[in-house]
Structure to design on (920 residues):
């Protein structure tokens, strides 16, 4: 019997994790694997690009977990610079275009993995494609930005977007010695937080010397005589720039899948079942930044582009294809980030998410410290907790602080997964010693306040 | 109607939290509160004493959360230097001895809180009471040790005991410029960990310049002509010392309660119900280091002396006495500690606890890093996970590492509380960004390995 053929579209985290995991289960005599990647690189940490640009990470090689050669050494027929241009679901084949030779050809599959990732959102404004305007989605993007910094006539950087990528790139440009202005159309930076917590980020960014302008949708990129970007025009004013970084966020790259008639969700991502199989298609899997995932708190799908999910998806897909078993039950929406020494974290629902999900809720916001107040290095943090009215079920947590703040959100992530009430959380046996926590961990303080808010609201 | 009288025995975390919380619920017209404390201080962080001795914390005042004067200002009749010498349960009264005046008197109560804390274990060997031998249980102990350091003829410190207090005191003495030897009778330091993890602590302590001698039970304290300790004799040899610190651990201080016929458990601690009421006694509560707590994983009571539990107990007792409501469901046994930059954490059951609880189990031990491997400051850590055979329920986690290691144990503490399986833990949505975690958080890596071990054991 001939080996089955697995075709993988996309050579980053989800696709190559799936290929590698499937290979662990089945050797080349049972399963042949062909993987297509349109860029030069495989299995790299896109989340690490801001730290490469900042200089914290020496070179792009450090961001590559596994090179094309390493994949090939494990009997994966990896074809870089080769773009899949069509999926023929009926005919069980894909068409690939070799970007070096220009040659196009069909490849048949028994099983298909779609891991086409996400594409950066680019505002549709004049000048957006000018030299000196840079996305930071791929290693090629990162290299282009670094090359561009050398050519920048001055030291003014404008970052468009104040979400995770935006604030991380603000730090990176600051570390590169640029004067940084962040422009965002939302009322506060970090719109993945509630505005009251976003305001804390705004204030802290001010303190770090980063100018943040909110309510400033971009209307035009200004260019000079040589065509290079010279500034960013917004509804609020014009900001001169020697380099412009787009950090607005991403949307699922599902052009191929959509054209092939595969099911897409409300956010444009592929819809899968719990085994990461594309809904209604027994031999097609999808994972990573091109799929929608179930939000376990809100009970509906979302699009979240995050390396840790992509890696999980890949492992699960690979196991299922290889004859093992795995499922991805969903997410609670945990995310952590930092800008210099400012740490930002969130999980679960924001107020507006809770409202949109039809949930009535109470909130509690507290201030505490990362260590016992008397211990050297204790830093302040603000924790906001959202709980369901009456049931007291935890709905979400947001944290803004300094060292030791962000990863505390993991406690809430597990509690959300377990469906805990904030009252039950007050009894959690969290690690305590003065160098690590006040005697009441900030998460416990927030839980106590939230539990009191639930009781007060319930008796109102 | 006259106010009810609440009597509190013990002026530290549990006792004064109970008094303060009860006061929040009821004013002096409804509830009079008398609190007895045999020492000079109230509401202080005993856990902070090593950091005061080390010099990390400036003075003992910083360790005091609330002074006697502050308590008195809240209408609590706090009597320091006054020791309760008898509880008359039948007569609902306690006898107190004023240690200044020598006067003894009876005080009636309607409701009683016993928060007598713990006493340090002192080996019953010749010389143990010599000058230069110091416990570190109270602020008075800490002051005595600091005074003694000034008088020490040389710079050799011997710490007896290699548990939390012992290793923290080893760090403190090292920071004070002493040459430190830690003696312990167990086969590895940190016997709250399994020996394989304790060995990692041993190696790391070696690297820090701390000499650790295991299997060395103390047989005698050697003394000089002036009576001051000059060395420690053990079964393994004799170790010269200019100062000796006892860091062996504590046992519940329940002499009073035992004499009064109140119920004590197998570990010598008071037994309470879920509301922290002494079992069978409707008007007597107990909390903090003098009680036994339910171990939610093993399903039996344990004695754990820890400020965070004492504070929770106090809050719950105070609320219940004040007419509110609260319960303490139990613990999972979380503890974190550090020796210089070495971080140590554990929660749940060790292998021998699982065995003693009648559980069959599998283990998995992995190495990972605190941040993405390429991110500056990524430090190694070892995570050991124990899961029940067949069901795959998480039973325990131990972590030894450097910065960023210890508080990761909180994820396991919540998972234990929720009764999660290690398989379910592999899907946890933990915060990921390169400065905070590898793309697979070390806890997830351990969970994956443990889940595989469960499957392998199940099919064996």
């Amino acid at each position: 019997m001939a080996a089955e053929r697995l075709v993988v579209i996309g050579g980053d985290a989800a696709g190559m994790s799936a290929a590698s995991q499937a290979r662990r289960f089945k050797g080349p005599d049972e399963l042949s694997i062909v993987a297509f990647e349109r860029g030069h690189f495989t299995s790299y940490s896109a989340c690490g690009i801001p730290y490469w640009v900042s200089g914290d990470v020496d070179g792009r090689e450090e961001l590559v977990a596994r090179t094309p050669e390493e994949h090939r050494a494990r009997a994966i027929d990896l074809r870089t610079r080769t773009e899949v241009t069509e999926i023929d679901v009926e005919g069980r084949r894909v068409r690939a275009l070799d970007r070096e030779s220009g040659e196009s050809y069909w490849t048949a599959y028994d099983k298909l993995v779609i891991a086409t990732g996400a594409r950066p959102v680019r505002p549709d404004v004049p000048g957006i494609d000018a030299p000196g305007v840079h996305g930071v989605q791929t290693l090629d993007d990162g290299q282009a930005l670094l090359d561009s910094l050398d050519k920048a006539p001055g030291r003014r950087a404008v970052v468009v977007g104040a979400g995770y990528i935006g604030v991380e790139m603000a730090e990176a440009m600051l570390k590169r010695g640029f004067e940084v202005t962040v422009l965002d159309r939302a009322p506060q930076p970090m719109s993945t937080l509630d505005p009251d917590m976003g305001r804390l980020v705004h204030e802290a960014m001010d303190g770090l010397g980063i100018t943040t302008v909110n309510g400033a949708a971009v209307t035009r990129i200004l260019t000079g005589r040589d065509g290079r970007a010279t500034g960013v025009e917004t509804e609020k004013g014009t900001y001169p720039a020697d380099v412009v970084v787009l950090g607005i966020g991403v949307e699922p790259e599902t052009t191929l899948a959509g054209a092939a008639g595969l099911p897409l969700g409300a956010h444009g991502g592929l819809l899968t079942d719990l085994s990461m199989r594309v809904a209604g298609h027994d031999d097609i899997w999808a994972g990573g930044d091109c799929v929608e995932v179930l939000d376990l708190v809100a009970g509906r799908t979302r699009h979240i582009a995050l390396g840790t999910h992509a890696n999980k998806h890949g492992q699960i897909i690979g196991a299922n294809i290889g004859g093992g078993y795995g499922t991805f039950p969903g997410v609670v929406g945990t995310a952590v980030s930092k800008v210099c020494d400012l740490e930002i974290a969130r999980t679960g629902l924001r107020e507006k998410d809770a409202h949109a999900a039809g949930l009535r809720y109470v909130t509690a916001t507290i201030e505490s410290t990362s260590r016992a107040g008397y211990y050297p290095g204790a830093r302040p943090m603000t924790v906001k907790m959202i709980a369901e009215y009456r049931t007291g079920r935890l709905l979400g947590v947001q944290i803004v602080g300094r060292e030791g703040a962000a990863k505390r959100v993991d406690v809430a992530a597990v509690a959300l997964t377990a469906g805990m009430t904030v009252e039950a959380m007050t009894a959690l046996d969290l690690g305590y010693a003065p160098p690590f926590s006040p005697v009441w961990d900030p998460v416990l303080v927030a839980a106590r306040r939230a539990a009191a808010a639930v009781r007060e609201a319930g008796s109102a």
